[in-house]
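Supplementary Methods. Inverse-folding protocol.

Structures were first reduced to a discrete structure-token string of length 140. This string, shown here, constituted the complete conditioning input.
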């Protein structure tokens, strides 16, 4: 996991992706050992906070930025999000080991496949026929 002390993490998530928005809400409900700021990827706020970042790439893959300039992408980003949570830090440590890495990678690939399926129009043309799904509100 991180070798430079991390005091805060910014998670850049796709606000047009129902899975991403659901995970954003889930992260916000968890007890955080390291504070998480959740910012829509590619937004003006993201561009202002991280002008040197490839913002098109942040819309394709989860990206997490540490307060000391660390940048985590894809599997590492998911692991560092779990690492920031009180109830999931031990799992994050395991997922970063050689034994756990295949499980972490498989989870990220499954999420990416599900996310892509949501963006493609179904046989009936919906729910995401224009490439953008409606963003659900927070779970009740």
């Amino acid at each position: 996991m991180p070798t430079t002390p991390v005091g805060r993490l910014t998670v850049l998530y796709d606000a047009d992706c129902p899975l991403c928005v659901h995970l954003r809400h889930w992260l916000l409900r968890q007890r955080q050992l390291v504070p998480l700021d959740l910012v829509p990827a590619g937004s003006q706020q993201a561009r202002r906070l991280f002008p040197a970042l490839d913002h098109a790439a942040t819309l394709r893959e989860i990206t997490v930025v540490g307060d000391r300039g660390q940048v985590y992408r894809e599997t590492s980003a998911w692991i560092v999000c779990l690492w920031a949570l009180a109830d999931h830090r031990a799992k994050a440590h395991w997922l970063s080991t050689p034994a756990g890495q295949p499980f972490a990678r498989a989870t990220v690939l499954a999420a990416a496949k599900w996310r892509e399926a949501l963006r493609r129009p179904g046989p009936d043309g919906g729910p995401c026929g224009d490439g953008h799904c409606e963003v659900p509100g927070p779970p009740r």
